[in-house]
Design goal:
This protein is mainly α. The chain has ten helices and two strands. It has a two-stranded antiparallel sheet. Helix 1 packs parallel to helix 8, helix 4 crosses helix 8 and helix 5 runs antiparallel to helix 6. The protein starts with a helix and ends in a 16-residue tail after the last helix.
Amino acid sequence: MGWTALHQHAPLLARIRASLRRWLQDGTLAPGQNLDERKLAHRLEVSRTPVREAILLLAGEGLVVPRADGGYRAAPMSGEEAADLFRLLGEIESRALFRAAPYGALGLARLEELDAARVTAQTAAERLAMDRRWHHHLLPAHRIGGVCRAELDRLEGMAARYQLALLSVADDDHALVDPVLEHRAMVDDLLSDRVARAAVRLERHWLTGAAAAAERWPSSRPRGGAIDPAAA
């Protein structure tokens, strides 16, 4: 493929990858569902080649897994995976917070604006999108480093389908600790330069999500026993 053709192909592949990722995260492509390249290509109105390439990239993100016959299926969901993801996010984010600090008043004000937008969001997907933007603004690449930010993005992409599933079964988000209340407490801590306290809140927030996942998928218990976020 020549440079011009490759340059034109890249935006198409990115769009297909984004569409498939969204369907995998919101359950349109259900956990364990076989991925039919022909049907997906027809639905997306593209050829099968970029669909196949997008699926291979999503396998690298952990959202699809190979089948014995050479095809792929949507990755199954389990309490173990959810707990591992939430625990890792909590550990990495809480450590990265020390690298990102100190915060200025303007940056913290932006966090409050994102929380206000989350309160008015109408759907679980919109609330999750606002929540992810909050975390990105809290821990941007220029503060914590590109490698750390990229790893957080990868883990967040894998965790998104669990978060959406939890949010979708609780209209008032009681399946998880209210993120807005948690966020406001963290902002208050950062305003007072209590970074260590904010880091504890941040990790505990993710551990609460891990505990909620263990309840949502009770057939798969996290390794190491039950999770007690209060003990964090």
